[in-house]
Specification:
disordered C terminus; globular; nine-stranded mixed β-sheet; Alkaline Phosphatase, subunit A; 2 domains; four-stranded antiparallel β-sheet
Amino acid sequence: MHIILYVLDALRADHLGCYGYERDTSPYIDEIAEDGVVFENCFTSTTWTRPAAASILTGLYPGVHLTHSRLDVLSEDLSRMPEFLQSKGYSTAAFVTMGNIASEFGFDQGFNNYFDLFREPKILANRRKVKGSNEVFLEDFDNEIALPLAEDINEFLFIWLYEHKLENTFSFVWAIDTHEPYNPPYKFRRFSTSSPTKPDEGETSDIRSAGAEDQQRLIDLYDDELIHNDHCLGEMVAFLREKKLYDDTMLIILGDHGEAFYEHGVYSHGHAPFEEIIHVPLIIKFPQRKYVGKRVAGLVELIDIFPTVVATVEEPTNESESLTMQGYNLLPLIDGRADQVRDYAFSETRTLAIHNRYLSARGMHWKYIRMEKPSRNTGTILKTLQHVFKQKIVSAILRSPGHFVKNYFSRSNEWLFDLGNNLEEQENLIYKESQKADLMRKALDEWLCKNDILSKKIENASVQIEESLILQKHLEKLGYL
């Protein structure tokens, strides 16, 4: 069997046709969905890439794997999906366009081959260089990086799959076309047009300084990026069919988190876990058309992928049952043996000690969000100023102060939403529905306590990169130091 786990970075569920989007942005993904299972209510465990990737690979929440910040390394002591598959005789490879999950950060463990495509000389020579964003990094250019496209992934993926076509394989693919900056190739611009008067359109600086009037323009750019990535996915499916591999492939399509388009006064991601950020697509096409055409309404999370892969590869054994995972095997949901596997989907975003911490508990009908501000004292204020100047983000703050004010100094500390009547999350019921708020606070706090206990039980400790080894080498010219 061939297993391909394909992540479209920052992909919202509600921008795909198979999730009800009115625009024709995803015809090839929609075809894959028809061949497989669509999980209508899937949620990510965090709102930005590195902890999301760590959760996908380990089946653990961020509070357990402790990969929270831009300095954190995924601990080598944690079991992960590629290692399990290696133990079952699978050849494993990763095709990564996102520096946040580069091999330096521990994500290469368990892979026979780990292609950091943003470093490949052939790709770097062909792709235009762009100014570094807040998340894409690790190339030593003069404040510039090159962003591989989904077609670059295909070039490397196809060669590797063909070379291993007679083996069982696991391919971990991470595309960044739908991540900022939004600069879709011209032939895929169905909704957007290039602006000669605004050369930075769709760049990070443009997004950070955008207001409500820019919403549709940025959505158009984003949707065209999706159209391009979807086209490349179509090419991948065509390759699998041509090489007689498609029927024997388990193809998993997902977004690691969503993307905000000013629904709550801010763009991008990495902040408060509103629906546009944590509701993500999850589509699984099983081999031999098993479970074809199914749709699952129950709450699921990205941490459920690992245990579902384990259950698909083999019948439960002592070895697989001994794996430490917090996710659930989704096969009982798919085949009707269960209506639900959990009451709540949880999330946690905690980047640096000077930043806000965001937490959420999301049920089928109600959702609770809590923002915990860092303690404000002389020491933390000094650390904040050091961070601002060391990371050279003063100019970014001056260009778009509203973005940073909303991100770090939000007025509300708690939100409660009745999703059945207010899916847009505009009416905060935290005071009107105090009993419901207390119930969800308790669920969230119990979850946090369990995470803390499990993290200590498996003796997992946060591991961080020494600045002299990595940050000074790779990040200085990209505005991180």
